[in-house]
Amino acid sequence: MPGFELFGELERKEVNDVLDNGVLMRYGFDGMRNGHWKAKELEAALQHTFQSKHVQLVSSGTAAVSVALASAGVGAGDEVIMPTFTFVASFEAIMMLGAIPVLVDIDDTLGLNPDAVEQAITPKTKAVMVVQMCGSMAHMDALQAVCNKHDLLLVEDACQAIGGTYKGKPLGSIGDLGCFSFDFVKTITCGEGGAVITNNKDYYLNADHYSDHGHDHIGNDRGAEKHPFIGYNFRISELHAAVGLAQVKRLPEFLEIQRRNLNILKEALADIPEVTFRTIPEGGEESGAFFNFFLPNLEIVNKVLKGFSDNGIDVCWNYYNNNWHYIKEWNHLKDLKSLFPISKEVKDGLAYLKTKDFSKSDNYISRNISCLIKLSWTEEQVKVRASKMAEVIKSALYKF
Ligand SMILES: *Cc1c(COP(=O)(O)O)cnc(C)c1O
């Protein structure tokens, strides 16, 4: 996945353009910038890549989720449904707005279970945030149907699935709003950065103003801009956007490598009956950022991971006891360890976390192995890795 593996001349050229004129700010300074508008150019490129009418760059993927929700009017006391398996950023972005994250089970797509979503809906529910984890997607038609039926926003966090598609549509472009991260380890990276995409002009204008102090961006005189509402600073810089601009031009090349590598790994394990792959919904195509599979139980998973590490197979994990990506170890959230006071409404709204049964999620996450797919691996290296992986798994399963 990490686009930084293949940094080259194109990234250097785009960054040098910015350094040569000295304008690091994405807005204004028209006279000084020699025609360089890297953030604007990147937004235009992403409109094309993600087939979306509007794109607003922001400072991170976490900011993208928060800005997306705020732009659609989600705020204090609203409930946002999200999955148990994601990155901590998901609940952070919701709580930043004074809203309440409602965690529900995943299914064997490793994404939100549509039935669990429907059961969690209350009169306070405003939005469903689906997280397209590890390069693939949840059952999007079913989730869309639940959202339509209950008149809820569908927000897509596609931070880990840049370039994946569902029924021909880029992931991120299916919901009312989509969110991307271009942080240091994502498929397209610019160091720190993110994007909100939407076809809704009002949401877009809200995101544009909100992410830059509420400035209305009307006219050429920055100082004369007015403030239709209160905003904050979630801007991207021209330097970051310059790196992203080079990387987005190379996305087709990155995706081809990722998918080639994924297919080699999948083929090598396909004939082991105890290995099952995550479900890819009908009409979906993975981005190839990760390879995910299930084994019969956690004990075998641990045995296999030990074997991988003994045999030099790196970048593979199980997320069950992981501090960053799974509800089980998020004690700071369960215990409401906030640096500053949070409202009683949010505290009460999160009390369920101490008692809710997430055994369905436990079942999938405990049996899962997730391997990062690198862009720098040669075809030959992936083949060697794939056959070693198959050997380790077979010996963990069949040798005692
Ligand atoms: C990386 C990531 C984020 C956060 O992105 P940052 O740019 O690091 O803030 C959010 N959600 C998911 C699923 C991610 O993988």
TrEMBL record:
Superkingdom of origin organism: Bacteria
GO aspect biological process, one term: polysaccharide biosynthetic process
Keywords noted in UniProt: Pyridoxal phosphate
This protein's record includes keyword Cytoplasm: no
GO molecular function terms noted in the UniProt entry: pyridoxal phosphate binding; transaminase activity
Similarity comment: family membership: Belongs to the DegT/DnrJ/EryC1 family.
Protein name listed in UniProt: 8-amino-3,8-dideoxy-alpha-D-manno-octulosonate transaminase
Source species: Algibacter luteus
